[in-house]
Structures are given as structure tokens and as C-alpha cells.
Write a structure and sequence with these properties.
The complex is a heterodimer of chains A (571) and B (281).
Chain A: H1 10-15, H2 20-50, H3 60-63, H4 71-107, H5 115-134, H6 160-188, H7 201-232, E1 244-245, E2 248-249, H8 258-292, H9 299-312, H10 328-355, H11 365-382, H12 384-388, H13 390-396, H14 400-430, H15 436-462, H16 485-512, H17 527-530
Antiparallel strand pairs in A: 1-2
Helix pairs in contact in A: 2-4, 2-5, 2-16, 4-5, 4-6, 4-7, 4-8, 4-14, 5-6, 6-7, 7-8, 7-9, 8-11, 8-14, 9-10, 11-14, 11-15, 14-15, 15-16
Chain B: H1 2-8, H2 19-50, H3 68-97, E1 106-113, E2 116-121, E3 156-159, E4 161-165, E5 169-176, E6 181-185, E7 190-194, E8 200-205, H4 210-216, E9 227-231, E10 244-249, H5 251-273
Parallel strand pairs in B: 1-5, 4-10
Antiparallel strand pairs in B: 1-2, 2-3, 5-8, 6-7, 6-9, 9-10
The chains are: A mainly alpha (571), B alpha+beta (281).
Chain lengths: 571, 281
């Protein structure tokens, strides 16, 4: 099957490739770089929060007068940190990179269903991400109205917002192309015998994620185009009548509704949360099954819980909008759906925790990150409860409590899972092993620092300190007792950056090391490990396309000779 | 639990009638979170130690055989139902449906703008005068009040200074001139978005005066700092400094303050009619 015989130039092989594995790597490298850049923006913001109004060391001269970060640039960094981390970093890594590389491998397919569409998806993403950051170089700087871009603030903001909207249109288009591809691939290209209930959980999560992207993103694409028109040709989709900004009556005709934007935005952005978390569940499930050497507890309930979660994620969006003047009926509806969606999350987390019981647990680097994910995601999920109840949200809305909540879900949650995935599949991609000592150092330092950054946010949030304040709340009386925590959080944030050097060093050292020649170093059951040739894999993936006979997690089957039975083992 | 949260930074005082209800639900839901986290945490750590590969070289294909986890999941669902029906829905209904009418309450318009809070009182006639966007003058008339309207003659407006009496229902009619803001009184557990193009009522009743509140803050980090109005929705580069001040008077104090404002207003209006102008003398 391997059709690597004809000569390919560097450009066709690595740049304009249509091979799902090369595209996956392109996604991985690009999105990891964006994660680093998004982190860097935050590191600058954290200096201003810790020491408001003092010159930022080293780079202060590039920021503003006297080396102090100006308030408008702080807002730009905040908006771009959120945008870059979500749309340029985590989603492309979780869905673009992992989905592209491993969905075809795990279902026994030779490539994605539409290889050229796949390449188009990556390049649209690349272009969108470049457009997104050119915002920093236009007059007034990058978008500065938050990643939520609420009008009228966003409509009246500087030019960076227009750039942001063009970037979003490109990024959404890319996601749509990618999601269609994953859907068709999973539906059409499963190997013989790979029935739905034999799919690895990772494939299920990517499949559901693709549905969410397909159905949730178009409303935001439409909304982004409408906001562009409000900005460029003074239409009034989101602009009501009679606004006066800086003493000037706005030229928009009026009659629009800023709440319409919020509905369209959150109709995307809540499913987006599950776009961020579902692939993480998938990776963690694979790693836990493999390293406990036993099947996942309740495979079917896990699958149904994830499908239900995906469905429910479309009818909870307005819980981000309790304070917009919501009445009792709508309020009750969205509070109820929000409490309901917590149940499948509890079921999923419980299934993963129960899967540990009776295992023979190996504490290697991918497993540490997967295990670290569980309590961290647990904290992220639990702290969502008070925010989901409108009455409690009155006080906690838009405070640092919210920032702590969703960062626990995404940072030590999803990003830990993504690290677990990178360490787990590194040998598959390169044929080499990562360094365990560096990996463990990376895990433990990151674990401590993540908690050092995000745990105090619950305290400042409980004190009522709002997010998105240039001075970190210094001028507010209610922040007086907790303001000093800002410095503590900032120091841990910078240390978190330093601890990523273990990861970067590990990648460089491991890539330069010798090949081990192992095809299945973790003794895994799924066909991405058992039926492929020795890495790096050629175009076509499998010497012989596998036939599937077993479920994905047949570890420690009583009476079997080895402690794992591959899915393609007829036995 | 409330005591624990207060040790962590939660306000020790809740200065409005709905404050204790909101504190109560925050406290209850934190109990649920704590119990779940500690329960899961103990199980998790025990499992990692008990089933490490060196102690458990061969995994058990079956794993957990009991159904305790299902009971726990059902338990979580039941507690959530209780929180919704018993606490969350009634508090929200009271917030939205019990808005007091203009006879029973003090009505005050609050108009947010980048980056200040305009406070508009209807004056003794208890009717707000008309406002027009064409009349907006950032220096003299930030809310565009039309003084030629009969109802506007006695209207008083201030910037960033909200004065209210204690123990009277206050109905804030919240709007904004420009972008979206959020009118937040942390000590009162009051927070409401000011949405462009809409006027949204938000009501509360203060249970202590500023004087009484200042007594409670003695010796704490915020000693001497009274009630404040925070903007809790990103509204531009000056968002962080969009701060107002709230003074809660006793009844007599409030009357005094209001009559002072009326006197200032009369002086101001007569100044405008005085051709000579004070500056020349």
C-alpha cells in the first residue's frame, strides 16, 4: 500500500502535502507555536497585574511610554491571548493535529476522505492565524474588545477589530472544512469489522467534536460578517438607535440589538468549550486504558454520555448571559439545561476514575499527564456549578472566579491531556522515545505552577474582583484584601513558562536520538499501534489494511497469553 | 461554609436584603463541590497507591463490580434539582418579578458611559424629565436632559455619586449611552448589565448605612473605604477606572442631601439666566 516509491520534492512532501499525517504535524507545530505566543502575551499582562503602572522589564520600550503597558494594549493582549489560545492553539492542536493524525490510523483508514480538502483546511487556518496577528501592526493595535467582541464596544473599536473579524472568518472556514472531513472519514472509511461500538473512545470524541464544529461555527461566521458590515458600511445589525460615543452621535441607523451578537456568539462559544474538552477526554481515555492495562469501565455509557453532552452543549449557551436582563422562564430553562449537562460530565469523569480500580498502573509521563487531568478537570467542572446557577452568578459573574473556572478546564485540563497525547504518540510519529526524566520534571513543575496560577483566582473572584481590569483591581476597595495575590499568581505564571523548557528540551533531545525500532512500545491494542509498519509511516499507513475483530481496550483478558489483545487479533 | 469562604476573601458583609439569600446559595453549592472533590480525591489517591504496577502486577479485567458510583451520580442530580427549585429559581424570580413600582420605591436612572456613571434623580415631582441624544454635552449635560421639559425642571444629576436611603426599596433604571457596562455593587450582591438600547430595572434594599458599614471595616484591609460602584463588563481602555461611589444615608440624611442638591440646582439655573455671569465680578 505504501506508495512512497515515486520521488517527491521537499515542497510536495512537507509543505503542500495531502497526507493526513504530514498535515497533522503541520497543525501540531503551528498550534504549539501559537500556544507559546499566546502564553507570552499573558506573561506580559501578568507583569502589569502584579505591579500596576511600573515599567515592564526587557520589552517595556516596545510597549509604551516609560515602558509601562498602556491600558488599551492590555486590552489587546487580553483579547488576543484568548483568541490565540482557543482558536489558534488548543482547537487546532486537539482537533487539527491529533484528529488528523490519529483518526485515520485508529479506524484503519489509509488517509482522510478528502485529502485535498484537508490541506485546504490547514492552509486556511494558517492564513487566518497570520491575518489574526497582523492586527498588532495596524493603527490602534490588535483587537481590544475581549475574545467575546461584544458590540457596540467591538463595533466602535479600532481597526484591529476588523482584522480580528477577517481572521475569524478564515479560521471558521478552516474548522468547517476539517470537521466535514473527519465526519466523512469516520462514517465511510472504517476498516472492515470496525463497528461503531468498537471505535476507540478517541475516535468517538473527534467524531462528536466534528459535529459540534459543523453545527456551531456557521452562526458565528454569519455573525462575524454582520459585525464586519456594522463596522465597515455602518449597518446596524447589532447597533441600537441613539448611541453617543465620546460625545458624538454614532452614524449607524440604529434598530439593531447588541444582544443578538451575544446569542450568536455564545451559540458557538459554548459548544466550543466541548470542542476543547472532548478530544482531551479521548486522549486521556486511550492513555488510561493503556497504562492501567484494563478495559475502560462502562464503554457504552461513556459513548452515550459524550453524545448527550454534545447535544446538550447546544442548549446551554445563554448561561453566559444571565445578567443581560433575563426573565424567569428563560432563566429557569438555561439553569436547568446547565445542571443537566453537568450529569454526563460527572458520568464521564466517574467512568475514567473507576477505570483505575483494579488496574496495574504504570506511572509513565503520558499517564502522569492523564492522571493530572482528572482532578484538574474536576476542579474546573465543579467550579462551573455556582456559575451555572443564576442567583450565585449575580455575584460571581465576570469575576476572577470565572477565569479560574475555565482555565482549570482548559489549561491543566485540556492542555495536560494534549501533553499526555504528545508523549503517548511521540514514538508512533518519530520511532523514538521521549526522555522520561525530563517528561516527569515537565509534569510535576507544570502541575505545581498551574495550581499556583489558577487556584488564587477563586479567592480574588470570591472577593468580587472583576476580570479584564488593567490595574488588576488595585483601585477598588473590595480588592484591597486580595490584591497582593496578583504577584503570587504572576510569579507562578512565569515559572510555568520556565517549566515548559523541559518539554522543549525533551522534544529536541528526543528528536535527535536514535530510533528504537519499536512499533508498539506501550503494548497498546488499537490498530494505530499494532498494524502499522515501523515509523515514520509512509503514505498509506498500513502494509495490509487491518480487519477488526475486537473492542478497543482488550487488556488483561482472562486466559489470554499476553496482557493485551489487538483489535485486529482474530484469536 | 460561608465562614470558610469569608476567610478566603468573600465579603464579610452583605448590605442588602437579597444579599444573605445569594450568600446562602453560594455557600450551599460550595458544600456540594467540596464533598464531591474530597470524596473523589480520597478514592483517587487511594486507587493510585493501591493499584500501582509494583503492587498489582496483573490488572483485573472486570475492575469495579459494585454500583456505588451510580448512586453518587443520582445523588448529585438530586442535589442539583434541590438547588434549582429550592433556591435558584425563587431568588431569580424575586429579582426579576418583584421590581417595586414608583410609589413604593426610590427610582433612580443610572446611565453608564465610557468611563463614568451618570446618576439621574427625578426630583420632587418623581417624574424623570425627557432626555435627547442631540442635547448631550459631555461637559455640561452628559445625559442630554431637556430642561425645557416641564418634568425636567427639578431633575438632579450627578456623576459617579449615587446616594440612597437605607431600608427603602431602590429601583435603578439602568441604561447606557454607548457600549455595554455592568453596574455592580459587590457588597449588595447586585450586578446587572447595562445594555445599549435598553433600560433594565434592577432593584435592591440596603440594610445598612455607609456609616455602619465603615464601622465593620475597621482594622481590615479596606478600612475607611466605603461602598463603590464597579463596572464589571469590559467597556474600553478606561474600564478599570470606571468607578462610582455609593453613599447609603439614614432617612434624614438622605432628605438633607436631596434638598442640598435642589439648592445647587436652583443656583445653577439662576446662574444660567444671569446675563452678567459670576466670573466677571
Amino acid at each position: 500500500m505504501s506508495d512512497n516509491h515515486h520521488h517527491q520534492s521537499f515542497w510536495t512532501k512537507y509543505i503542500w502535502s495531502t497526507d493526513h499525517k504530514v498535515i497533522g504535524i503541520q497543525y501540531a507545530i503551528t498550534s504549539l507555536l501559537w500556544l507559546l505566543i499566546g502564553f507570552g502575551l499573558m506573561a506580559i499582562m501578568r507583569y502589569q497585574l502584579a505591579y500596576p503602572g511600573t515599567p515592564v522589564p526587557f520589552i517595556g520600550n516596545f510597549l509604551g511610554e516609560g515602558g509601562i503597558l498602556p491600558a488599551e494594549m492590555y486590552n489587546s493582549l487580553g483579547a488576543m491571548h484568548g483568541t490565540i489560545m482557543i482558536f489558534l492553539g488548543v482547537v487546532p492542536l486537539a482537533f487539527g493535529a491529533f484528529g488528523n493524525y490519529f483518526v485515520p490510523l485508529q479506524i484503519g483508514a489509509v488517509d482522510m476522505a478528502f485529502p485535498k480538502l484537508n490541506a485546504a483546511s490547514y492552509w486556511t487556518y494558517f492564513l487566518g492565524s497570520v491575518i489574526m496577528v497582523t492586527g498588532f501592526f495596524v493603527p490602534g493595535g490588535a483587537a481590544n474588545s475581549g475574545w467575546t467582541s461584544y458590540p457596540p464596544l467591538a463595533t466602535t473599536a479600532t481597526m484591529g477589530q476588523t482584522v480580528w473579524l477577517w481572521g475569524m472568518v478564515m479560521l471558521i472556514t478552516s474548522s468547517l472544512l476539517g470537521s466535514v472531513n473527519i465526519l466523512v472519514t469516520v462514517i465511510q472509511l472504517r476498516a472492515e469489522g470496525m463497528t461503531w461500538m468498537k471505535l476507540p473512545i478517541f475516535v468517538w470524541t473527534q467524531f462528536i467534536t466534528a459535529f459540534l464544529l459543523l453545527l456551531a461555527f456557521p452562526p458565528l461566521e454569519a455573525a462575524a460578517v454582520l459585525q464586519l458590515m456594522d463596522r465597515i458600511i455602518d449597518t446596524s445589525f447589532f447597533m441600537p438607535t441613539g448611541l453617543v460615543v465620546s460625545g458624538e452621535v454614532l452614524p449607524n441607523a440604529g434598530g439593531g440589538s447588541p444582544l443578538l451578537w451575544q446569542h450568536l456568539f455564545w451559540f458557538l462559544a459554548h459548544p466550543e468549550v466541548y470542542v476543547l474538552i472532548l478530544p482531551a477526554f479521548g486522549i486521556v481515555t486511550e492513555v488510561i486504558a493503556n497504562n492501567t492495562r484494563k478495559p475502560i469501565k462502562g464503554y457504552k455509557s461513556l459513548v452515550y454520555a459524550m453524545i448527550f453532552l454534545g447535544f446538550m452543549s447546544f442548549i446551554v449557551w445563554a448561561h453566559h448571559m444571565y445578567l443581560t436582563g433575563m426573565g424567569t422562564t428563560i432563566g429557569a430553562f438555561f439553569q436547568t439545561t446547565t445542571m443537566i449537562i453537568s450529569i454526563p460530565s460527572v458520568v464521564i469523569l466517574t467512568a475514567l476514575l473507576l477505570s483505575l480500580w483494579g488496574g496495574s498502573i504504570r506511572f509513565n509521563t503520558p499517564m502522569l499527564f492523564a492522571l493530572g487531568f482528572l482532578p484538574m478537570f474536576g476542579i474546573g467542572g465543579l467550579t462551573g456549578l455556582p456559575l451555572g446557577l443564576a442567583a450565585a452568578d449575580i455575584y460571581l459573574h465576570d469575576t476572577y472566579y470565572v477565569i479560574g473556572h475555565f482555565h482549570y478546564v482548559v489549561a491543566p485540563g485540556t492542555i495536560f491531556a494534549l501533553f499526555a497525547g504528545i508523549y503517548y504518540w511521540f514514538p508512533k510519529i518519530t520511532g523514538k522515545r521521549t526522555n522520561e526524566t525530563l517528561g516527569k520534571l515537565h509534569f510535576f513543575t507544570s502541575f505545581v505552577c498551574m495550581n499556583g496560577v489558577f487556584m488564587p483566582m477563586f479567592i480574588t473572584g470570591l472577593a468580587g474582583v472583576s476580570r479584564r481590569l488593567w490595574d488588576g483591581g488595585e483601585s477598588y476597595a473590595h480588592a484591597a484584601g486580595v490584591f497582593q495575590l496578583n504577584e503570587f499568581m504572576s510569579i507562578f505564571a512565569w515559572l510555568l513558562g520556565v517549566s515548559q523548557l523541559f518539554f522543549i528540551a525533551n522534544m529536541i533531545i528526543s528528536l535527535r536520538s536514535k530510533k528504537t525500532g519499536e512499533i508498539n512500545p506501550w503494548n497498546a491494542t488499537t490498530v494505530d499501534w499494532t498494524d502499522t509498519s515501523s515509523p515514520p509511516l509512509g503514505h498509506g499507513n498500513f502494509e495490509t489494511v487491518p480487519t477488526i475483530y475486537r473492542g478497543p481496550y482488550e487488556y488483561s483478558v482472562p486466559g489470554a497469553k499476553s496482557d493485551y489483545l489487538p483489535q485486529s487479533n482474530k484469536g | 461554609m460561608l465562614e470558610i469562604l469569608r476567610k478566603l476573601g468573600f465579603p464579610t458583609v452583605s448590605a442588602s436584603t437579597q444579599g444573605p439569600e445569594i450568600d446562602n446559595i453560594i455557600s450551599l453549592v460550595h458544600w456540594l463541590m467540596l464533598i464531591l472533590f474530597v470524596g473523589w480525591g480520597i478514592y483517587f489517591i487511594y486507587t493510585l497507591i493501591r493499584f500501582r504496577a509494583s503492587r498489582q502486577p496483573k490488572a483485573d479485567y472486570q475492575g469495579v463490580k459494585n454500583h456505588y458510583s451510580t448512586y453518587a451520580e443520582v445523588g448529585v442530580a438530586l442535589v442539583e434539582v434541590a438547588l434549582l427549585i429550592g433556591f435558584a429559581f425563587p431568588i431569580w424570580a424575586s429579582r426579576v418579578n418583584d421590581v417595586p413600582n414608583s410609589l413604593d420605591s426610590i427610582q433612580i436612572r443610572v446611565v453608564g458611559q465610557q468611563f463614568a456613571w451618570n446618576i439621574h434623580y427625578p426630583g420632587p415631582d418623581n417624574i424623570f424629565g425627557a432626555t435627547k441624544v442631540e442635547l448631550v454635552d459631555e461637559a455640561e449635560n452628559p445625559i442630554g436632559l431637556d430642561r425645557s421639559d416641564a418634568n425636567a425642571k427639578d431633575d438632579v444629576f450627578t456623576i459617579n455619586q449615587l446616594h440612597i436611603p437605607v431600608d427603602r426599596p431602590i429601583n435603578i433604571l439602568l441604561s447606557t449611552k454607548d457600549v455595554i457596562h455592568n453596574f455592580k455593587l459587590p457588597e449588595f450582591r447586585v450586578s446587572q448589565d447595562a445594555i445599549s438600547g435598553m433600560e433594565i430595572p434592577v432593584w435592591f434594599k440596603a440594610t445598612m448605612t455607609s456609616q455602619e458599614f465603615l464601622e465593620t471595616t475597621k482594622g481590615t484591609a479596606r478600612d475607611g473605604m466605603g461602598f463603590e460602584i464597579a463596572c464589571a463588563q469590559l467597556c474600553g481602555l478606561g474600564h478599570y477606572r470606571m468607578k462610582g461611589y455609593l453613599t447609603v444615608h439614614d432617612d434624614i440624611g438622605y432628605q438633607q442631601w436631596m434638598s442640598e442638591q435642589q439648592e445647587y440646582l436652583l443656583e445653577e439655573l439662576s446662574d444660567d439666566e444671569d446675563d452678567w455671569g459670576d466670573d466677571e465680578w
